[in-house]
Amino acid sequence: MSQMAPARTYTQIVGAQFSKNKLAVFSVHIIYVLLFVFIFADFLANDKPIVMRLKGSTYFPVFREYGVNWLGMNWQDEFKSQQFKILEDDYEAGDWAIYPPIPYSPNEYNLQVKLQPPSMAHPFGTDELGRDVLSQMIHGARVSLLVGFVAVAIYVFIGVILGALAGFYGGIIDIIIQRLIEIMITFPRMFLIITIVAVMETQSIINIMVILGLTGWTGVARFTRAEFLKVKNEDYVVAAKALGYKDFRTIFRHVLPNTLTPVLVTATFGVAAAILIESGLSFLGFGAPPEQATWGSLLSSARDMLPTGWWLTTFPGLAIFITVTVYNLVGEGLRDALDPRLKQ
Amino acid sequence: MRKSFLIQFAILILLIIYTNIGDRSTAAISNSVVGDGGGIRVELTGDETIFDSSPTDLAPQKGGTLVMAISAEPENLNYYTSTSAAATRFLDYIYEPLLDYDYETWNYDRPVLAESFAISEDGMTFTFKLRENIYWHDGQPLTADDVLFSIKSILNPFVDAAPQRTSFSKVIEAHIEGPYIFSVTSSETYFRNQEILGGFAIMPKHIWDPQGLMDRYTVTDLLNPTITREEAAIKEFAEAFNTHPQGRPVGDGAEPIVGSGPFKFDKWITGDYMSLVRNDNYWGSDQTYIPGYSEQGSYLDKIIIKVVQDATARLIALKAGEIDFIPRMRAIQYFEQTGSQDFLDKYQKVSYVVPAYSYIGWNNDKPYFMDKRVRQAMTMLIDREAYNKYIAYDMGIPTIGPFYIYGEQYNHAIERWPYDPARAVELIEAAGWIDHDGDGIRDKDGVPFNFTFSISAGSTSSKYLALMLKEDLRKVGIVVNIRQLEWSVYVENLRDRQFDVVSLLWIGGLEADPYQIWHSDNIGDRGSNYIGFKHAEADSILYHARFEMDKTKRNAMYHRLQEILHDEQPYTFMFAQRDPGAYLKEFRGAKWIPIRPGYKLYSWWRNNTSQVSPL
Fold it and tell me: The complex's ipTM?
């Protein structure tokens, strides 16, 4: 590197370091694809048209669905039953509809086409009720990613705060928090989760996210505590104290930003772990409610169909494998990029 | 990231254009019609009440071992205190009752241990004359003492036999009139008296009560709470009875269970198998054992009943030759995984009818299902035929009421509600469930039509049914939530009536008394009428039919009851059940009968004539 180049920021350095790892960069692009699926699932697989021209008016049923679900809007009288495909039978001249690429919703069943192997109409085949597997996987991706991110967000939040307090103050607070961490990690996590879920009255994805969040924070807390111990005697922290800043400001404005990088790495691995645990729980029947398609529950219901229904296990299994792998690869890439010892 | 998203967005647009131009015909590739899976479909129609699924060209011969597999192991083998069906089925080969079904007329009047019996004029006292040539497996004679001891054990309030005891709650007196004559009296002329008072298994007194602790007490004493509370010996006996080693003969060295039946207890290795050997001294061997069913006591030398919990493992064991007979397989195994010519050459697949029916129970006290028009509509909204055809592999037999489809109580004149969503919507609207506030969900008096369908966590068929119902009802403006519960929690909620809708199975008999399930007295207090069905005429029929001893009149009453149930639809009656099974073709005499469990191994024998003995 030339000496003339303008001083680079920390982010730029890390970014350059990261981009040397081709596998990690590739993985990031796959995560972009997953994110895209996450955001646009309703436009990718839906039994409602995106745009529809009916009897002289234009409708946007997919958008309307958001309105109905989130803004308290109601369906137009023509669409009360939400059976758009039936409307096609009495189309008049000039009526048309544009459907998403996969014109099936995840819960739309058609017994006549049950257990069909992959075909043009159903690229990933159909399940035992004749539901489209690809549509279920696209909407299942939402659940998997949501669980991953929300659970990790919850436990990073808890872990960072507890770790920061333990590391910054030390003494009795540190002892209490450390013992708390030790108590938490003595429970086998999977069994703890299964026990809590079994006691829960209702099955929902939110429960899973909260439980994963509440049980997973110990690693983050330990990392944060260690970083705090390292940083808390640095000159700028001493300066902050000397300036009479409140502890709150010192911890969260000055120390925390300098300790977050290792947490970021753990979080990336954590997302992969959370997705895997959710799949496992759904596979065992403890996870999502039956009407909610997730990758794990797809796998679970496909178990009985082997060896004939290979497509029912192959595609959701691959999806879990790919997702978990790319998060781990990105995590590794980040860890390497952030590690100053690996820098030339 | 922005570039990445732009590219993906462009791909999405292209995909939408691509999939929307041209003919988007989702041409339904029609599924191959479900056949019989290469097996025999047992139909017990007309006069045919026994169905032999094996060739009848050879005369039965003795010898051979049969290995069958069941899914659950009994917790103990005490006939009165065990609550598992597996225990009852196993012990039915060892113990015998006084009377049993006649396998030709299917009346409960074939003398077994009894030689003859008489009913008093008022129909309340039954006197049984026992055969004098019957000996227990240990050589002791079986006498009226044993019969009296057995009924005393059931009636002893400290014996853990509460479910059995409810059937005997009307017994007021029992005694012996000589070594081979036993007499029992009930306080009412109930039509099932003969089946109950002649149908309990007789256990040997000299084994279970060697000290004669119960000799001092009469049946009347046992029914008197003051006496049972004060006499310590009664409780002492019950505790010994509940924990008697004969009730749990586990391991290699255990004392065998002593009974009187055509099979003797051999071994019970927990977690592995239970086995029986033929009783060569069986009292019935020299006479026709069950007319029309099994001509001699039994033919097989040995029966081994393996416990294999997992259905897939059971099928693998069958294919590997470790098991000869699976009485219950999963429909998907029967239709999809056992179709190869090799399998069909070696094994005979049979689907046979069992006296059980599936139903959807609507909690009649919930605002949604109070009105019978809504319940009728619900029935018409469920495409039961499609469910049967595609999900249940056509194994269900459409049923309209709670009685066994092959019994005389069943009313064949009633026509099943059709699948008719349009008419259903009319009925729902007539009942006042209209979308008043325009949110797409029907409501009445401010209550949205939004209910919960409870399913048991293990049941895939109810899960599919619930998913179908959810999707179908959404289209007519009704919201269904699905709730999966562990079986124990499920049953608890059922008893406490904390549910909207359940999907379950009732197991019945050839002739049933519907009083427990449908009479309004059994609502609440953990009664079986947990859906809360209440109907004055039905109550009256249910009460009076119990005391109607004329079978024709009684059945006419029950036919009327089915008309009421059909009109009220407290349940949506789904299907009478078939069980699919498979056995090695070497076995003959595989006869299927209309009582539980659908077969008795007495008649089975192994055809060794064509077999070269392996080295």
Answer: 0.84
